[in-house]
Each structure stands twice: as structure tokens, then as C-alpha cells.
Amino acid sequence: MINRIKFFKPSFFTYILLLFGVIVNAQQKDSISSRVQVIHADVLRFERIGGRELQYLSKDVLVRHRASYLLCDSAIIDSNKVTAMGHVRILEGDSLQLYADSLFYDGDQRMANLKGKVVLKHKDQQLFTESMQYDLNTRISKYLQGGVMFSEQAKLRSSRGYYDAKTGEAFFKDSVVVLLKDSMSLIADTLLYQTRERKVIFIGPSLIKQDSLKIYTDEGYYLIEEQKSYFGNSPRYTRGSQKADAKIIYHDALRKKITLVGHASIKDDQQEAKADSIVFNESNGDVLLFGNAYYQEGERILEGQNIEYNRFSKSLQVQGNPRVLEAGRMIQSARLKYDGKTDIGTASGAVVVTDTTEGYTIVSDSFSYSKTKKCFPLLVGTGDLISSYCLTEIHYISQQTVFFQKISNKKMIAFKR
Hints:
Blueprint: E1 2-6, H1 12-26, E2 37-40, E3 43-49, E4 52-65, E5 68-78, E6 81-91, E7 97-106, E8 111-122, E9 125-135, E10 140-143, E11 147-150, E12 154-158, E13 160-164, E14 169-180, E15 185-194, E16 199-202, E17 206-210, E18 213-217, E19 220-223, E20 228-231, E21 236-239, E22 242-245, E23 248-252, E24 257-267, E25 271-281, E26 286-297, E27 300-310, E28 316-319, E29 323-326, E30 329-332, E31 335-339, E32 344-355, E33 360-370, E34 375-380, E35 386-390, E36 393-397, E37 402-405, E38 411-413
Parallel strand pairs: 33-38
Antiparallel strand pairs: 1-3, 2-4, 3-4, 4-5, 5-6, 6-7, 7-8, 8-9, 9-10, 9-11, 10-13, 11-12, 12-14, 13-14, 14-15, 15-16, 15-17, 16-19, 17-18, 18-21, 19-20, 20-23, 21-22, 22-24, 23-24, 24-25, 25-26, 26-27, 27-28, 27-29, 28-31, 29-30, 30-32, 31-32, 32-33, 33-34, 34-35, 35-36, 36-37
């Protein structure tokens, strides 16, 4: 036997007051029911089949289960199960909303299966797919037939994945493509997106691209707002002609700085650097090498324990038994510093200068030199002897006497008397 009951149709204002009223009431735990409850429908009819009672609802349907609300065009309620059709919408308390063409909801399991133009909205995240399962107990939604997530900073697409509304974490698997607002794109097998931290975590093999930049890695993360990256497990880095290798790479896109840690090397058409770790700053030209450092740019080769070099000013500082080779000249000492702006270099501690082109060797405790003038304006021993070498003449100045002498083999030793 079928009973038909026609409900009055409230005004729009009455409907809004009713909806907000039940939402407020639903927040009171004592009033929460474990049964699916009909809040409103323009048309409702009952049908008994055996021992089951079916409810058929249509037009402006509003149903509540615990703290969640379901709106749709029509629905069938069978015990604690709901089949909903047409403009389906699920509302939860912290701004999470689900949209679909149809839905099957099991109130006992609190599990919803949505189909057709499914959209999940949570804060500034939107997830689009054709089929989704949503667990209202864990607040985890899953999709297996392809999905796309949009946020203010990123667009993420994958074949399957899930979103955890409690933690704000989204997991993407198979054919993952990420497009970021800074024009960076990510192609991966598996990754995790922490929406609250705006952090992309690489779990499997991944390719990061931005203009001519390419980074291959299977471990690391990218902070979207700060535009900072970490890549582990010996990633590969290329940027045009520039190639870098290390156990770990840190990349700061805003400051144009790359840090290489562990068996680090970086090379392009103009330079090559090797060290235990390297910091390379494209914006100010600084190149910092720490541990077993080697740097080459053009004809200049620098070696030492630590090297600080600026590509723009050509200034450098080398510590730990430095060695400099350039245009046939080699300088060895305990410490070496050169100011590219003043063109004054200073070497100290067991200094040996050898020039195979000019054919001279200088041994001293310390000295200053000019690279462009090819001149050693101040060569200092540890005792009385002070001398100056410029081009083919060496000048000695003693505390007792002053004399000038040209030496044919261009070899001078400064020592303590």
C-alpha cells in the first residue's frame, strides 16, 4: 500500500532559517542521531515491501545524518541507506562540500559513493573527478578514475589518489602532473601534497621543470610559497649548459641559489667546480666551495680546502694550502686572497710563485701582487729584506742599503737573516 503526503512548501526565507536552525542544533552532541533523518522534501511518499519501509523524497530534499547534511533533487531512503539523484550535495561543518550527479550513502558504515561530475571543495582546495568514495568516519575521499585538484598555487592531476580532510594531505599516484603558479611543472609517479603547508613531497621518480631547469629525483620536497626545494638520493640537475651532481641538492628559486652537499660538482660552458659541498648564487655571482675545493673558470684554476669566489668581481679567497694556476703562473701558499676591484692580491705562509712563461720562481713568507699589471709591488720576507718585482726587474731594499739589481734567471728567495 502506498501513502502519499504532500508537504507545504515554505518560503525561501523560512527554508534558510530552518536549515541554519538544524545546523546549529546538530552541533549539540546530545541531539545527534545515528539514524538518517528527513529534514525537508516537497513531496514524500512511503512504500512497504516485506518488512522494509522505503521513503521516496523529491524536490528540495534535505536529509541529515549525525553532523552531515545531504541535499538533492530526489532520494530513496531504505532503512539507513540513501540513494540520491540530481544536484547532490553533502555539507560538513568545516566548509567541506561534495557535489555529484548521484550518490549512494550507507549510514551504518558512514560511507558515500558519488558518481558523475564529482567536486570536493574544502577551504581553497577543489578536487574534480567522475567517481569518488568518501568515508565520513575518517574524512578521506578516494578516486580511481582520474582526478584534478586546484588550489591558489597549484594544479595537480593523477590517475588515482586520495584527500584527507583532517590533515589537509592529498596523495597522488600514477601519471602525476603538477603545474605551479611560478611556471614550474612536476611530473611524477607518486607524490604527497600538504595543502596547509603548501608543500609538495616527492615519493617516487620525479622530474621538475621550469624554463631550462630540469631536476630528476626520487626523494625531496618543494615549498610552493617560498619556492625552495630539497632533493635527496643523488639527484640530477641541469639548467641549459649547466649540470650539477651531489648527494643532496637545495634550490632557492627566489634567491637564485643552489646548494650541493656530498661529492658536489657543477659545470657549464664557462666554469667547473668540485668540492664536498658547493653554494652557487646566480644573482650576486658568489661561488662558495667547502672541503677539497676545486674551481676552474677559463684559464684560472683554484685549488684548496675552501674557496670563496665571485664571478662578477673576480675576487677570491682560498684557505687550506691554496694553489692558483693561470696563464702559466702558479701560486702556492697557506692562504690567498684577491680583490678584483682593487686588483690587489695577497698570499701568505710558505709562498711559492712559479711562472713557466716568464721563467721565474719566487719563494717568500708573504707578498702582494697585481694581476693586470703583472707586478708584485710589495714582496715581504720575515726579516730585513723587502723587495719588489715588476716585469723583468727585481728591486731589493734593505734597512742598511738601497740598491737595484737585474737578475737574469729571474729567481728570488726572500728569507729571514
